[in-house]
Fold this protein.
Amino acid sequence: MRFKNTKTLLLAAITISAMLAGCSDKGSTSGGAAGENSNSKPVAEQVNRQIIGIDPGAGIMKSANKAIADYGLKDWKLIEGSGAAMTAALDKAIKDKKPIIITGWTPHWMFAKYELKYLEDPKLSFGGEEQIHTVVRKGLKADQPSAYTVLDRFEWTADDMAAVMSAIQEGKKPEQAAKDWVDANKDKADKWTEGVDKADGKSLKLGYVAWDSEIASTNVVKAVLESKLGYKVTALQVEAGPMWAGVAGGDTDAMVAAWLPTTHEDYLNKYKDKIEDLGPNLKGTKTGLVVPAYMDISSIEDLNK
């Protein structure tokens, strides 16, 4: 995610420093020898009763607040920020072998870079397994049949998405990472566009949220529509609410970033009569509370101990 301005970047940096400073004198259980870096204090005290979250409008934040209520986590605070601020806080904590609890989701490159684990969620505050759906505005099939067909056919795997996310995380621009993936997976991309008429420079708007997964998928779809059909695609980075409202209002043509049935449940219920759901483009996603593997904790229930 790109910060919108210097002020946002500064606030995020201050937030991260404050979050981690509170844990600076608190150790954690590491993967080393028995007792190494151990801490007998409850996890709640080790992390100052803080869960590091992302954008306040994200569905995962609603689920995290639900978990706080469901598990009776009194005096716990969910820290709002961004995906970039969250992963920066995670990176610093892991480098210092400190405890941290974040809102996490898969697919995400951080699971490949770090040894992480989900906390068990027996009350299902975060719901079960999810899917990422493609959602388009009403009338797109009649107005833009070629785009509609490609969007309807678009489907890939978590491994596909992870390849693009990892390339971006390693320094490639999203547009280049997407183009490289499309070039390397010609057979898949060709199936999405087989027999579809060219667009001859028609414009199309795709909305997406600044999750690494959605940056990857949106740029891949954009690359396919532009390189194979000749569309002029504008990718609009917004928060989840405006993303759904844009498609429902017809200001945005489509999104491939709808996490259902739980994360974006409220938005679907609000706009379901004003959009068309083309179904899942990726299956087997998950959200929840995530911790480094070296932390001696396995369930959200343990946060009360």
